[in-house]
Amino acid sequence: MITLDPHPSTPEDAWAVSALAERTDEEELRLRWLVRGGLDGLRLPPPGPVRRGDRLWEHTCAEAFVRTEGAAAYVELNFAPSSEWAAYAFTAYRDGGPLEASGLAPRIEVRREHATLAFDVRIALAELSPAFPGADLRVGLSVIAEAADGRRAFFALHHPSPQPDFHHADGFTLRLEARA
């Protein structure tokens, strides 16, 4: 697990956030986020069935941004504590919209245990982009934590801009090598 840092403009010490991204032997993307700390101070929707949602980034949400090494195009994935998910495809920086792949079916498990909120996700790389299987990938991992009073804190592997911006290519710092 890698520690995600809060953005300097939204300092937050009520939660510690860590994440993991790895590629499996089955050419799936395995993602995991852990939010630890005062979960009673975190605004959380009630759990529900795994289903598509929209505008999940407006509230507590785990996110992954994935692109092939050196490419401008990327995919954004959002996962809410309610088990809702969203996927977006971009041809360049913030130039895109919903990813409409008909077979897109992430496996999502969200658990709250004591002072830890855990998100576990698996999704086939080919469902995200035909370019992803067999390619070196760059990944950005982030979490938006919405406090009970509505304030939001932005956690990421790297914050390359003065304002929170998870779409910034320099934030895609985790490298996942293609399987041999």
Q: Could you explain the architecture of this structure?
A:
The protein has about 180 residues and is an all-beta fold. It has a single domain, classed as Sandwich (Immunoglobulin-like), CATH 2.60.40. Helix content is about 0%, strand content about 50%. Strands 1, 2, 3, 4, 5, 6, 7, 8, 9, 10, 11, 12 and 13 form a 13-stranded mixed sheet that branches.
How would the blueprint of this fold be written?
Layout: E1 2-6, E2 15-23, E3 28-37, E4 51-52, E5 61-68, E6 74-79, E7 84-92, E8 95-98, E9 107-113, E10 116-124, H1 125-128, E11 137-146, E12 152-156, E13 174-176
Parallel strand pairs: 4-7
Antiparallel strand pairs: 1-2, 1-12, 2-3, 3-10, 5-6, 5-11, 6-7, 7-8, 9-10, 11-12, 11-13
How large is the count of helical segments?
A: 1
Q: How many DSSP E strands?
A: 13
- CATH topology, by name, is Immunoglobulin-like
- Tell me the structural class: mainly beta
Helix content: under 10%
Largest sheet: 13 strands, mixed
Nearest-integer average pLDDT: 94
List segments where confidence is low: pLDDT < 50 over at least 5 consecutive residues.
Answer: none
Please indicate the count of domains. Answer: 1
List the secondary-structure elements in sequence, H or E: EEEEEEEEEEHEEE
- Which CATH top level class fits? Mainly Beta
Radius of gyration: 15 Å
What is the annotated CATH architecture?
Sandwich
Q: Which shape, going by the Cα principal axes?
A: globular
Measure the end-to-end span.
24 Å
Beta-strand percent range: over 45%
